[in-house]
Design brief:
Layout: E1 21-31, E2 37-46, E3 55-59, H1 62-65, E4 74-79, H2 82-86, H3 94-108, E5 110-115, H4 124-134, H5 140-146, H6 157-165, E6 170-174, H7 178-186, E7 190-195, H8 206-216
Parallel strand pairs: 4-5, 4-6, 6-7
Antiparallel strand pairs: 1-2, 2-3, 3-5
Helix pairs in contact: 4-5
Amino acid sequence: MTTLTTAGADEPGTPGTPAAGVRTQVTVPLAFPDSYRTTAEVFTFTGLADGLEHLALGLGDWRARLTDGGDAPLVRPHSECLTGDVFGSQRCDCGPQLREAAQAITEAGGFLLYLRQEGRGIGLYAKLDAYALQDTGLDTYEANRALGRGEDERDYTAAAQMLRALGAGRIRLLSNNPDKALQLESLGVQVTERVPTGVHLSDANARYLRAKVTHTHHTIALPLAV
């Protein structure tokens, strides 16, 4: 187990956001169902603003990406999705995005942030309640509102804290979601480039992806017929 030197509190560009620290770092070999394999340096943290157990996975030559003058590390803040990440649910694109991110970040060097924000922050049971409402005709955002919840309750303060603790004050962001870039920039993380993920379309998630494009302007290049 090793540790990194952590960033100081209230650094320039991070007004009012306390610093987090690296708690542990451990090497974990990863194997995906399609036989893709990689090795991650998995970091845990202290002092995260929301008190949750988020993880950062350092993949590829992430250390080289932290040096001045080179490409910024490729980073995906990935929200936990038990149904998609673990059980392979076709109602979303989370599982394929997680698998894609692991390989892309390994090849580029950077970090996969695994954030405990199931259901865009509303939790697992509420997400399944929203699924039931979607089966009656509501889209993913309408269903959240019908439950009395926000369309997207995720806050990326902890993600910014994690990146600063790892020394990643500038990143290339692997995401289709413009809100992630806006929040991270407002929290003092410089996003040098936004890199979209692939299009992971299925019959079961077409309406979900279309809502993300039309309602929250995700950069997903859906076919015109969808």
